[in-house]
Amino acid sequence: MSGCSLDLNILIRSGCVIGLVGGGDVAGDSGGSTRAAGGAGDFDYEAHGDGYARRRRTDPRIAALIHAALGDARTVLNVGAGAGSYEPADRHVVAVEPSAAMRSQRPRHLAPAIDATAEELPFDDGSVDAAMATVTVHQWADPDRGLREMRRVSRGPVVVLTFDGDTLDQFWLADYIPQLIAADRPRYPAIGHIRAVLGGASTVTPVPVPIDCVDGFTEAYYARPEAFLDPAVRRSQSVWGFVDADIAERAVARLRHDLESGTWDRHYGALRHQPEFHGSLRLVTALPPSDTAQAD
Ligand SMILES: C[S@@+](CC[C@H](N)C(=O)[O-])C[C@H]1O[C@@H](n2cnc3c(N)ncnc32)[C@H](O)[C@@H]1O
């Protein structure tokens, strides 16, 4: 098969805006959406999204779990696709991404993304073999509606990579800046709720974070605390935008001090050699209600 080649005429006929690879230019109309131009969700990627693709890359071990969950799907819809992380290279992928800044970071080997939101997917019922959404559901204005849309357009699995808000405080960063966790927790729809909205038979897989994880979400740096001293690392993690800048600066200053004094290593140093962190990352895989026999 030709990998990710797409019939752009189909995309254009669907009435969607298409973000051009590398340029971020748009043409057309998004079909009546009321959202502000250039993005959607609870974080302003137009203002703060540059550099995302450099620090938030596909981690191959996490990708393997996602791709296995997609089963034998040949056509895959990626919702909230961002710069294209985790899109499988060996299937036909259609991507949906409302932020022009994020679409412009998609590498040239990936198909361009359609400017649309999860809540209004411009696809027919059952038109793709599978739908995926990675670390994006928590940013949607109406996660339930977006999840129902994914269920509607996928004739096979809906695969959602997200974080379990109830376990976020197990990460040592909570000891330095509990406000960060407090701000982050309510953003995440409960895992049980995601399963209920998607319906059918579903599974939840805890996803271990590898010690050298190349997708730079917060827990990815469990063994590399120095990373949080780098403003560019923090900028690529949307949650820092939800805490007061002074509080964040004080927390980072305390972390710097503890790293220099050895206090961090005395408390958490064993993590530097722990190959995986079992934190809050979860993979939800939901089969269509008509297909429950395949689930365990
Ligand atoms: C943290 S990024 C994740 C991007 C990509 N899936 C990844 O794994 O790197 C979250 C993405 O969700 C997008 N987003 C926010 N609100 C959305 C919505 N209502 N529908 C679809 N995508 C949305 C953002 O523009 C952003 O690109």
Bound molecules: S-adenosylmethionine
Measured between the Cα atoms of the first and last residue, the distance is: 31 Å
Kindly report the name of the CATH homologous superfamily of the domain at 8-164 and 187-216 and 275-291. Answer: Vaccinia Virus protein VP39
Order of helices and strands: HEHHHEEHEEHEHHHEEHHHEE
Query: What is the CATH third-level topology name of the domain at 8-164 and 187-216 and 275-291?
Result: Rossmann fold
Number of strands: 10
Shape: globular
Q: DSSP strand (E) fraction? A: 5-15%
Low-pLDDT residue spans: 1-34
Q: Which radius of gyration do the C-alpha atoms yield? A: 19 Å
Biggest sheet strand line-up: 1-4-3-2-5-6-10-7
Count of helical regions = 12
Largest sheet: 8 strands, mixed
Give the second-level CATH assignment, the architecture of the domain at 8-164 and 187-216 and 275-291. Answer: 3-Layer(aba) Sandwich
Structural class: alpha/beta
CATH class of the domain at 8-164 and 187-216 and 275-291: Alpha Beta
Give structural notes.
Helices cover 29% and strands 14% of the residues. Strands 1-4-3-2-5-6-10-7 form an 8-stranded mixed β-sheet, with helices on both faces. It has a two-stranded antiparallel sheet with strand order 8-9. The chain is built from 12 helices and 10 strands. α5 (100-103) links the parallel β3 and β4. The longest helix is centred in the C-terminal third of the chain and has 17 residues, at 245-261. It has a domain at 8-164 and 187-216 and 275-291: Rossmann fold (3-Layer(aba) Sandwich), CATH 3.40.50. It has helices at 8-13, 45-48, 52-55, 60-69, 100-103, 143-153, 173-176, 178-184, 191-198, 231-235, 245-261, 263-268; strands at 17-18, 75-79, 92-96, 113-115, 130-134, 158-163, 202-206, 209-210, 276-277, 281-286. It is an alpha/beta fold. It is globular. Bound molecules: S-adenosylmethionine (SAM). The site of S-adenosylmethionine has 25 residues, from loops.
